[in-house]
Every structure is written in C-alpha cells, then in structure tokens.
C-alpha cells in the first residue's frame, strides 16, 4: 500500500523555521470537515484504505548528519520492497536523504523538481546540508540519472554554474511551458517545494518569491505527468506564515493529486 510519512524537521532552514509543524497541519485538512478526500480524477484518497499513514519521524537531535541518517534508514526500510512513499513536511534539506534512499532502490532515478529555487548551492551559510543545497548533494552521489527543475525564478550565477556542472535541465518560470512533460523518463520521483507557487496562492512558505505558478498550473503539470510516479515529497510548507490554513489546504490538495499519481 502507498505510504505517507511526516518529516517534522526544519533545522536546515536558512531564513525562518516553521516547516517542522507542517505534517500535522496538512493532515488536519483531511479531518476538519471543509474538504473531501477525492482527487480530481475521481479517486478517493482515504487514510487506512488508499494509503497507510505512518505518522511522523521523531528526531532526537537537530544534528543534520544524525537526522539525515535517521531519515535515510527509515525511508529505505519503507520502500525497499518496492512500496511507494509520499513524505510531507520539513524544509527542503530532507529531500537529500529521502531521494538518496530512493536512488538506492530505483536504479537510474529521474527527479522532477518544482521550486522557485534551484537548491543547488555547493555550500550555503556554511551549511552543506542547507535546504538550499539538497540537489547539489544528490547530484554528486552520481546515482541520479536526470534532474528536471521547473518554476525557478531566483537563479544566481553560482547556481547556473552548478546546473551546467551537473547537467540539470531547467525550465525557468519566465520560459514556462509544457514540453518537459514529454521528455520525462522513469523511474520518476517528484520533489515539490510549495514556494514554486506564487505567494498570492501559497503565502504559508518561508521564502515569498513573486512571479510564481498558480495552483491550477501546478496541478495540471502534475496531472499531465505521463508516468506512474515512484515516490514524492511535499516540502517547505510553513504554518507560521499561513493565513487561515489557506496554504495547508493547498498542501492537502497537492498531497491528494500526488498520491493518485503514485497508485
Ligand atoms: N528550499 C528553499 N526554499 N530554498 C530557498 C533558498 C533561498 C536562498 N536564499 C537562495 O538564494 O536561493
Ligand atoms: Mn526548495
Ligand atoms: Mn524554494
């Protein structure tokens, strides 16, 4: 059965803390009575039936090495017999150990990454495990077959160099179009940073980067991915910046749309 795992970890956030509160806030949207559990394709996404909610990882330490070891080991254990896992919450640094575990199980892994940011810094704020660096760490393992980044609007010179160095395919927000969908290959993993959305649609993120996608655009990209997705994460939701749980509901909606791509 499809699995859901909360990763309440934000010690590697460079600007604000808060994404550690994300998993429960997103789950709350499943329970509080406003929404229903149907994805737009008509499949109902029910905890205990459509997916098993594994709860949250619990961290004894904020030391990134220890935390990442815990995440990598647990994720590997959950997916090692081919099970599919969606993880929610945490800052984007957690995608390094999560995707690293996936790349061990799924050889030649391809990543589709939605974000305002490339998160390719060699080292950010003297923290190589920063949420601004997970894709540098992943690319240097040599185990990632391809990385496609969509929605970027903050590329620095350093990150352009890093993208060239690692052969990253980038569709910047200013050039946004659908052609990348037809070039995606399997096994495909999706990493979704909520700040790919315009802050008008998703204010509950740490980094408000104007000029982003609409919720509708993002949902249709996900729906049009022509492959069954083998794993995904939803990161960077920050409840401390949210208004009336509006962004929690966006997160819940995206969670359902991601889940039905994994069934
Ligand atoms: N995972 C993230 N939200 N990363 C944001 C990193 C932002 C960083 N200030 C930059 O210049 O790119
Ligand atoms: Mn990110
Ligand atoms: Mn981002």
Average of the residue pLDDT scores: 98
* Helix-residue proportion: 25-40%
What CATH architecture would you give? 3-Layer(aba) Sandwich
CATH topology-level fold name? Arginase, Chain A
> What gross morphology would you assign?
globular
In this structure, how is the largest beta sheet organized?
8 strands, parallel
* CATH class annotation: Alpha Beta
Strand residue percentage: 15-25%
Structural class: alpha/beta
In oligomeric terms, what are we looking at? single chain
Instruction: Report, as a whole number of angstroms, the end-to-end distance.
Output: 9 Å
Q: What's the CATH superfamily, by name?
A: Ureohydrolase domain
Low-confidence blocks of residues: none
Number of strands: 8
Tell me the domain tally: 1
Tally of alpha and pi helices: 7
EC number: 3.5.3.11
Protein name: Agmatinase
GO molecular function: agmatinase activity
Pfam family, one: Arginase
Which properties best describe this structure?
263 residues; alpha/beta; Arginase, Chain A; eight-stranded parallel β-sheet; 7 helices; globular; binds arginine; binds manganese (II) ion
């Amino acid at each position: 059965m499809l699995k859901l795992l909360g990763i309440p970890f934000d010690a590697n956030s460079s600007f604000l803390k808060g994404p550690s509160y994300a998993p429960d806030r997103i789950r709350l949207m499943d329970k509080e009575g406003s929404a229903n559990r149907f994805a737009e394709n008509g499949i109902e996404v029910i905890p205990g039936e459509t997916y098993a909610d594994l709860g949250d990882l619990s961290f004894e330490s904020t030391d990134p090495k220890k935390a990442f070891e815990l995440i990598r080991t647990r994720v590997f254990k959950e997916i090692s017999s081919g099970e599919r896992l969606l993880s929610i919450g945490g800052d984007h640094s957690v995608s390094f150990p999560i995707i690293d575990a996936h790349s061990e199980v799924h050889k030649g892994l391809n990543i589709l990454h939605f974000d305002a940011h490339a998160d390719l810094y060699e080292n950010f704020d003297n923290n190589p495990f920063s949420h601004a660096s997970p894709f540098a760490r992943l690319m240097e393992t040599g185990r990632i077959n391809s990385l496609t980044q969509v929605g970027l609007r903050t590329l620095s010179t350093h990150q352009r160099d890093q993208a060239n160095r690692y052969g990253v395919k980038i569709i910047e927000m200013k050039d946004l179009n659908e052609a990348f969908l037809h070039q995606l290959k399997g096994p495909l993993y999706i990493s979704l940073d909520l700040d790919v959305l315009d802050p008008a649609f998703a204010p509950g993120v740490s980094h408000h980067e104007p000029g982003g996608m609409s919720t509708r655009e993002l949902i249709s990209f996900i729906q049009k991915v022509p492959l069954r997705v083998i794993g995904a994460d939803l990161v960077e939701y920050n409840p401390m910046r949210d208004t009336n749980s509006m962004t929690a509901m966006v997160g819940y909606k995206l969670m359902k749309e991601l889940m039905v791509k994994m069934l």
